[in-house]
Amino acid sequence: MHLDLSSGKQCNALWHMTIEVQYKAAFDSRWDIGAVRRVFAEAAHVVLVAHQNADGDAVGSLLGMWHLLRQAVSAEVTPLLPDGVPGDLDWLPGADAIVSGKADEVRCAAAIDGADLIVCLDLNTIERTGRLADSLHAAKAAFMQVDHHERGEDGQSRDWKVAVVEPEVSSACELVYWLMREAYGEDIFTREAATCLYAGICTDTGTFSYSNDRQSVYLAAAGLLAHGIDPMRINRQIKNVFTEERLRFFGHAMADLLEVYPERQVALMVLTEAEMKAYGVESADITGLINEVMKLRTVDCGILVREEGEKVRLSLRSKERYDVNLMARGLFGGGGHKRAAGATAYATLQEVVDKIKREVIDDK
């Protein structure tokens, strides 16, 4: 970093500061940047897909890659999401271009069938694409993975044409930034692409509150800022998105559903479908609830359990003591990161709660 500080002749002159940041991504030897460029250059139709119940990192990486590929290659590029774009992220540039599997599964299936290349973003197993999984498993296209999670079960067995997997990176959005910057240079970045990637970094790090112990995330943020984004507006859009129903449900959850076990430094919250229906909220409205739990200074591990049809979804967070990646994997075959993980259980809500209490809360 070079700082050039100079002042005018008058003693009350304002300081002028010019900052030049020089940095280069250090890529694992398995990251063949030439292969990345080749696989995109050879494709006539690229399909981008991320996981169901998409969060900011999933939508941000999907749209960021979409914007960047439209600058870098001549291929047709189609972004898909199993459930469409959540209402609190529909402001992201290009969100209306995403094809929803929930609204138009036929169109999604046709796009997958006609693709030369399918890029899986923020996605470590095809099963996490829900209603699109069957079409993806049957696809004849080459597959590429760009993800920051530990490999899922089919992550090891699938024949990925290119796989860029780095669990130590904060988010899929950060990974897309470094990958595409290295492959095609800084000139392909637009304000729209930078906005999407910065938003995803913010949501997956809690606006740099966790998953941010490497300097690369700050350098990526600095690089994205250089493309004219408005970080304050992005943060407002991310945080100020509550409906009255959602806010009232959060209050109900914190007041009536939260159980705290201070001797274990664990907090548990259990949400039933009936309670969510009574308040008029859906699964996308629960985003961020687990982070509110983690504001308790006596809690190191927060576990959110949510009923969803015949399944039960778990979201886990930790500060220092617990490795929730190992916890999610051990409990229900889930995974993620040491500080943020999730799992899906095919059991009754009561069976899931009983297992958590038995193996996490009551375990000495």
Please tell me about this protein's structure.
With 364 residues, the protein is α/β, with parallel strands linked by helices. It is built from 14 helices and 14 strands. It has helices at residues 33-41, 56-72, 105-113, 133-138, 153-157, 172-184, 191-205, 215-225, 231-239, 244-257, 273-279, 289-293, 324-332, 349-361; strands at 2-6, 16-20, 45-49, 76-81, 99-100, 117-121, 142-147, 162-165, 258-261, 266-271, 301-308, 311-318, 335-336, 340-345. Strands 5-4-3-6-7-8 form a six-stranded parallel beta sheet, sandwiched between helices. Strands 9-10-11-12-14-13 form a six-stranded mixed beta sheet. It is globular, with a radius of gyration of 21 Å. The termini are far apart.
Beta-strand content: 15-25%
Rg (CA only) = 21 Å
| N-end to C-end Cα span | 50 Å
State the order of secondary-structure elements, H for helix, E for strand: EEHEHEEHEHEHEHHHHHEEHHEEHEEH
Total strand count, please?
14
Instruction: Give me the side-by-side strand order of the main sheet.
Output: 5-4-3-6-7-8
Sheet with the most strands, sense and barrel status: 6 strands, parallel
Structural class: alpha/beta
| Assembly context of the chains | single chain
Shape, principal axes of CA atoms:
globular
The residue-averaged pLDDT reads 88
Write the layout of secondary structure elements.
Blueprint: E1 2-6, E2 16-20, H1 33-41, E3 45-49, H2 56-72, E4 76-81, E5 99-100, H3 105-113, E6 117-121, H4 133-138, E7 142-147, H5 153-157, E8 162-165, H6 172-184, H7 191-205, H8 215-225, H9 231-239, H10 244-257, E9 258-261, E10 266-271, H11 273-279, H12 289-293, E11 301-308, E12 311-318, H13 324-332, E13 335-336, E14 340-345, H14 349-361
Parallel strand pairs: 3-4, 3-6, 4-5, 6-7, 7-8, 10-11
Antiparallel strand pairs: 1-2, 9-10, 11-12, 12-14, 13-14
Helix pairs in contact: 1-6, 2-6, 2-7, 6-7, 7-8, 7-9
